[in-house]
Amino acid sequence: MKEHKQTKKKRSVINFSEIKKRISEWIIFFERDLWRLSSKELTPRKSFLIKHLRVIVLALKGFNEDKVSMRASALTYYTLFAMVPVVALAFGIAKGFGLESYLESELQKALSNREEVFTWIMSFSKSMLETARGGMVAGVGFVVLVYAVMNVLSNIEGSFNAIWKIHKGRTLSRKFSDYFSMMFIAPFFLILSSGATVFLGTQITRISEDIQLIGFFSPVLMFLVQLVPYVLVWILFTLIYVVMPNTNVRFGGALLAGIVAGTLFQLAQWGYIYFQVGVSRYNAIYGSFAAVPLLLL
């Protein structure tokens, strides 16, 4: 019996050392052997696997070395301070396209069960828009509004340049031209991505009732309609990856990154609206302002 226990203990020690050995082998493989493999010596399938494995390893390594998490936190901080000016500018652009009421309803949906925060953001943003009309005070208000939004975009560019290893930012003239373009394009795409599904879905349902053939294909059409917001957000994120870094970015790489980031953005938005599970826990700390930190996550 005693010998049996000793044998069992010995086996457990051997297994533990085997695990350590395996871990060491995997570390050596990812740090050294993975980069020594030649694609010419591998089958097409293995070559494809090794190529994409290298991309994943480089992405994870770059995520850590470039301090992406810290930069994202810093951008969240700037976004929090620029929230009212950004919303005010978005409402100004939406009003020009006749989409002001729709944007307001979407914002209210995002801040569901948080009427105080919604009222606070709406009152301050509309007050800022009113201030930015006519007279000297309006001129100052408009400058503050534009500066706040451009400051956020400038910090976004700084983060992208650091990740791309670009040490020189845009000139002031290029900042004005490029940032103004982004200020008008981004809200437009976000508004379209939110409203396209509802609008197109309603139109297809109405037309399918009149035309029998379209009614037969309506499930396929509705599936394509569900993809519209994703496609619009993919385009927006692709433009951000192409435009924001102060360097030439390969369109294929920007498109792939835009699809991944845009999909995650849409899923996070969907999850925030439908799974606000932890809101009650934050109420004790933030009160009625609890929706704002959650909205920024």
Structure summary:
This protein has 297 residues and is mostly helical. It has 12 helices and no strands.
Structure description:
The chain is mostly helical and 297 residues long. Helix content is 85%, strand content 0%. It is globular and about 65 Å long. The protein has helices at 2-36, 44-65, 68-81, 83-96, 100-110, 115-131, 135-163, 172-210, 212-243, 251-274, 279-286, 291-296. The relative contact order is 0.07. The protein folds into 2 domains: 2-62; 67-296, no CATH class. The model has no long low-confidence stretch (mean pLDDT 72).
Features:
single chain; 297 residues; mainly alpha; 2 domains; 0% strand; globular
Please specify the SSE layout and strand pairing.
Layout (H helix, E strand, L loop, with lengths): L1 H35 L7 H22 L2 H14 L1 H14 L3 H11 L4 H17 L3 H29 L8 H39 L1 H32 L7 H24 L4 H8 L4 H6 L1
Helix pairs in contact: 3-7, 4-5, 4-6, 4-7, 4-8, 6-7, 7-8, 8-9, 9-10
Radius of gyration: 26 Å
Secondary-structure element string: HHHHHHHHHHHH
Helical fraction equals over 70%
End-to-end separation: 58 Å
- How many helices? 12
What is the tally of beta strands? 0
Structural class: mainly alpha
**Overall mean confidence score, pLDDT:** 72
- Low-pLDDT runs of 5+ residues are none
Beta-strand portion reads under 5%
Characterize the biggest β-sheet. Answer: none
* Structural domain tally: 2
Which overall shape is indicated by the principal axes computed on the Cα atoms?
globular
